[in-house]
């Protein structure tokens, strides 16, 4: 059998596909971060905690109220989004005039608090969340066994990423948003409610994190630590893609997922640092990130 | 000037003298027990606050006092970082007068703390860490390894699975001190029993997605995939192995080499059923264990893991030794502990080897099917008692070289 760098091609395809699945989560999360940074100039460190919150809301809905996966897919992002709106209205909105650093510290503190509360009540081993019946089982692709649920994650994340990109880059509302980031005073003078738009954007950004949380619930344990395990990588993805660049965040998310997957085959010990090595190299060569523009 | 120097020297000599005179009593007029473990990360449920509760139970049983002095329990989080662990234990011993350090899961951190306690001649009661090196080449005259170790896990689970016909093995190993040792020890037992190791992959600690590693294990064609990891990593790998249909095909079998009761609880019996594992303690074995565990559960809402039960047992034994020795001096108490046999709800006729290994019976268990379980925490069926002498290495085998 022919091999590529000593690995049978079938195995390689399998690993690439897995990389794509993990990339889907990176893309969904970094998309939310990029939207928030692009519009609000806030580095939202609470993103990982809100992703965890999404998964927990789904789990609580199932265990407390018997509400299943599909409703959770809709309800959990709404709950998380509403929580985000509350945060923005009461806390974040006071910091826009100050340096980025303050928003970062506030959201980081919030993340620690939210995580700490859940850890206190639920421990760290996590709670099991079943895969919905419709998506149980899997397909034998010849080169690997693909669980149906993982396939669904890739499709769902692609659709959401594309829709978001389209809404911001190609619709009138998106045009207002982009204009409001460039010059809020002028846009407000045209009679558009800029503060409301900013609140809604933050709510939408964190709702994306909540959605990713629900998607992740059946794959990983629903655990208070799930956010902090992922968030650092996601930040690296956003930095590599270029802060605030939506397309950059999505493409880098998938790309790094693939690259990480390959690392797991060729040099598994390095799989959790490869993203950061790339980040360092990109920052050296292109400080604004691959798709960012210099300001 | 010379007179002053002389006076200083005399004072210093006096201080040394009085410190020696105090050796017959309790240092600082308090016995301070420091529980050092992972209180927030992937190993927090198997030890964590539960170990602190268990230690407090041992202290309460002697009335909170020993040799007329009070006993104090302190706790800290080492965050699975060896540098934080060794700094904390230094601070505890030097500044706060801590006499004994308990638990310390994560073999990497335990190896670092062992260096500190050896240097300071303080007692170290290890429950959470697994690596057999702690009573092997890294042994210490004041270090005690209590609940289990990688060698016992290898003997228990490794041999049992080879006997069932699982001849070829592939290891999925946590990439640090513990995983490497567990892999080495298990591979040795597998080969001894006539099996073979076809490959291994090293996954970083705290990996979120194991599917890539599992697929590599699958394509290796090995009959058994040995999970040389622990806590959150074990949970994730077992869950994802079931998702990717590794075990359903019937050609491959998972061997969780280190599985705690808290892991099974988190996985649920649906996913964990039929796993074979080795444990040093299970709550539902006899009346004594049940009574203690129920008391523990009333405080924490959970049944204890072997780490938590072992924390209780070791502190109980430590306090008995202080009572018998009439002092809390590390070296003296350590010698006393090794003279006395361990008899409590955790172990019967447990004996402590000169290298600090507490030799007691281990148990091979099978995780029940959901239909066999009578309710929460009714998870294991004990299928074999492994005599302590078979489970643990002898002093000669351990490779421990103690001075004198």
Describe the protein's architecture and organization:
The complex is a heterodimer of chains A (295) and B (404). With 295 residues, chain A is mostly helical. Chain A has 11 helices and 2 strands, in the order ααααββααααααα. Chain A has one domain: ABC transporter involved in vitamin B12 uptake, BtuC (Orthogonal Bundle). Chain A has helices spanning 9-40, 47-65, 69-90, 100-122, 148-170, 172-182, 184-189, 194-216, 226-241, 246-266, 274-285, and strands at residues 138-140, 145-147. The termini of chain A are far apart. Chain B has 404 residues and is an alpha/beta fold. Chain B has a 6-stranded mixed sheet, sandwiched between helices. In chain B, strands 8-7-9-10 form a 4-stranded parallel sheet, with helices on both faces. In chain B, helix 3 runs parallel beside helix 4, helix 5 (150-163) runs parallel beside helix 6 (177-192) and helix 8 runs parallel beside helix 9. The interface between A and B is large, with 38 and 37 residues.
Q: Which sequence of strands runs across the widest sheet of chain A?
A: 1-2
Oligomerization: heterodimer
- The total beta strand count of chain A reads 2
Helix content percent band of chain B: 40-55%
* Major pleated sheet of chain A: 2 strands, antiparallel
> What proportion strand of chain A?
under 5%
Helix-strand category of chain A: mainly alpha
The CATH class of the largest domain in chain B is Alpha Beta
**What string, H for helix and E for strand, traces the elements of chain B in order?**
HEHEEHEHEEHEHEHEHEHHEHHHEEEEHH
Q: What's the N-to-C terminus distance of chain B?
A: 43 Å
Computed over alpha carbons, the radius of gyration of chain A is 19 Å
């Amino acid at each position: 059998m022919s091999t590529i760098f000593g690995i049978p091609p079938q195995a390689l395809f399998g690993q690439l596909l897995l990389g794509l699945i993990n990339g889907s989560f990176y893309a969904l999360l970094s998309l939310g971060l990029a939207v928030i940074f692009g519009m609000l100039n806030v580095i939202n460190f609470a993103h990982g905690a809100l992703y965890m919150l999404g998964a927990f809301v789904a789990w609580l809905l199932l265990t407390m109220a018997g509400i299943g996966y599909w409703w959770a897919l809709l309800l959990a992002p709404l709950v998380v989004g509403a929580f985000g709106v509350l945060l923005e209205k009461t806390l974040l909105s006071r910091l826009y005039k100050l340096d980025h650093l303050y928003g970062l510290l506030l959201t980081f503190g919030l993340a620690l608090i939210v995580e700490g509360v859940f850890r206190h009540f639920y421990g760290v081993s996590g709670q099991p969340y079943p895969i919905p019946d419709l998506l149980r089982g899997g397909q034998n692709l010849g080169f690997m066994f693909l669980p149906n649920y993982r396939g669904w994650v890739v499709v769902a994340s692609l659709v959401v990423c594309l829709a978001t990109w389209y809404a911001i880059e190609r619709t009138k509302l998106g045009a207002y948003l982009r204009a409001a980031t460039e010059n809020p005073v002028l846009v407000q003078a045209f009679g558009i409610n800029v503060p409301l738009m900013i609140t809604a954007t933050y709510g939408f950004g964190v709702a994306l994190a909540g959605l990713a949380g629900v998607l992740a619930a059946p794959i990983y344990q629903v655990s208070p630590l799930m956010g902090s395990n992922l968030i650092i990588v996601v930040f690296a993805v956003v930095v590599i893609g270029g802060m605030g660049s939506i397309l950059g965040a999505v493409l880098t998310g998938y790309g790094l997922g693939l690259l990480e997957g390959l690392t797991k085959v060729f040099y598994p010990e390095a799989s959790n640092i490869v993203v950061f090595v790339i980040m360092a190299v990109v920052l050296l060569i292109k400080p604004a990130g691959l798709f960012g523009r210099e300001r | 000037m010379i007179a002053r120097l002389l006076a200083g020297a005399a004072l210093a000599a006096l201080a040394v003298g009085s410190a020696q005179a105090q050796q017959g009593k309790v240092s600082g007029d308090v016995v301070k027990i420091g529980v050092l473990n992972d209180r927030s990360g992937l190993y927090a449920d198997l030890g964590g606050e539960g170990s602190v509760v268990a230690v407090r139970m041992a202290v309460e049983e002697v009335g909170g006092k020993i040799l007329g002095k009070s006993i104090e329990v302190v706790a800290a989080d080492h965050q699975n970082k060896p540098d934080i662990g060794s700094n904390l234990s230094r601070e505890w011993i030097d500044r706060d007068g801590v006499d004994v350090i308990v638990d310390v899961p994560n073999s990497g951190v335990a190896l670092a703390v062992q260096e500190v306690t050896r240097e300071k001649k303080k007692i170290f009661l290890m429950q959470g860490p697994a690596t057999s090196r702690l009573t092997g080449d890294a042994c210490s005259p004041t270090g005690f390894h209590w609940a289990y170790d990688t060698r016992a896990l290898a003997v228990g689970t490794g041999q049992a699975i080879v006997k069932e016909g699982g001849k070829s093995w592939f290891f999925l190993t946590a990439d640090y001190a513990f995983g490497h040792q567990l892999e080495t020890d298990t591979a040795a037992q597998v080969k001894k029993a006539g099996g073979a190791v076809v490959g291994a992959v090293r996954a970083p600690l705290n990996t979120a997605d194991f599917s890539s590693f599992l697929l590599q294990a699958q394509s290796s064609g090995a009959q058994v995939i040995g999970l040389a990891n622990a806590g959150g990593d074990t949970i994730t790998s077992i869950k994802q192995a079931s998702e990717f249909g590794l075990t359903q095909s019937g050609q491959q079998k998972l061997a969780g080499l280190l599985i705690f009761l808290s892991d099974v609880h988190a996985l649920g019996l649906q996913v964990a059923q039929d796993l074979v594992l080795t444990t040093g303690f299970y709550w539902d074995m006899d009346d004594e264990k049940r009574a203690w565990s129920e008391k523990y559960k009333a405080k924490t809402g959970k049944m204890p893991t072997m780490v938590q039960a072992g924390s209780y047992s070791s502190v109980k034994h430590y306090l008995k030794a202080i009572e018998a020795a009439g002092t809390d001096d590390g070296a003296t108490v350590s010698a006393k502990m090794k003279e006395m046999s361990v008899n409590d709800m955790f172990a019967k006729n447990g004996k402590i080897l000169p290298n600090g290994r507490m030799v007691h019976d281990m148990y091979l268990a099978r995780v029940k099917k959901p239909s066999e379980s009578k309710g929460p925490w009714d998870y294991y069926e004990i299928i074999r008692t492994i005599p302590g002498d078979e489970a643990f290495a002898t002093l000669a085998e351990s490779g421990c070289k103690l001075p004198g």
